[in-house]
Amino acid sequence: MLTAVIRAPGHAPALAATFAVLIPAVAEGILGHAVVVDTAGADDLRRIAEATGACYLRAGAAEAWQRGAERARGDRLLLLDAGDVPQPDWLPAVERHLLLAPCRPALLPLGGLAASLRERVAIARAPRQLRAGLILPRSAVLAGRLEATARRLSAERERAGR
């Protein structure tokens, strides 16, 4: 079962958009828990996290993924930024990945040409860096880096509310 670790820099509507698309994953039994890491200290993010049953904590942006992983309940994590909206076909793609290669990191890539190109350049510059869109073992996040190159999944995500 996955835990979503959502890095939230203080924009409540973006966090709400991300939670809205995660609800079907909870209903399907793929997502069991969420951790909201508030990197801006916004009280409205705490209220959203509490209303959804997510764990809430404050941390700096640089340590957000690791701090969220420390509080995660699942052995596999989905790293998201507030405003990340996985497309409707993301659940089967993630489920298939977790069945076939649960220990290998995977990426829900950004959709759209410009965003996809920016993401590809960032990955080429730092291929083992933690980033939004990754699905990976909790131990990799606690270690602070990927042990292998992430496999790009066919499903994509978009960024909303920014």
What do these coordinates show?
Keywords: Glycosyltransferase, Transferase. This is Glycosyltransferase family A protein. Residues 35-94 form the Glycosyltransferase 2-like domain. The protein is of the alpha/beta class and 162 residues long. It has a single domain (2-159), classed as Alpha-Beta Complex (Spore Coat Polysaccharide Biosynthesis Protein SpsA, Chain A), CATH 3.90.550.10. It has six helices and nine strands, in the order E-H-E-H-E-H-E-E-H-E-H-E-H-E-E. The strands form two sheets. A seven-stranded mixed sheet has the order 3-2-1-4-7-6-8, with helices on both faces. A two-stranded antiparallel ribbon has the order 5-9. Strand 1, helix 1 and strand 2 form a beta-alpha-beta unit. Helix 1 (12-28) runs parallel beside helix 2. The radius of gyration is 14 Å and the shape is globular. The model has no long low-confidence stretch (mean pLDDT 92).
Q: Can I get a quick summary?
A:
The protein has helices spanning 12-28, 43-52, 64-71, 90-100, 113-125, 138-143; strands at residues 2-8, 31-38, 55-58, 76-81, 84-86, 106-107, 134-137, 151-152, 157-159.
Question: What's the topology here?
Answer:
Blueprint: E1 2-8, H1 12-28, E2 31-38, H2 43-52, E3 55-58, H3 64-71, E4 76-81, E5 84-86, H4 90-100, E6 106-107, H5 113-125, E7 134-137, H6 138-143, E8 151-152, E9 157-159
Parallel strand pairs: 1-2, 1-4, 2-3, 6-8
Antiparallel strand pairs: 4-7, 5-9, 6-7
Helix pairs in contact: 1-2
EC number: 2.4.-.-
Keywords: Glycosyltransferase, Transferase
GO molecular function: glycosyltransferase activity
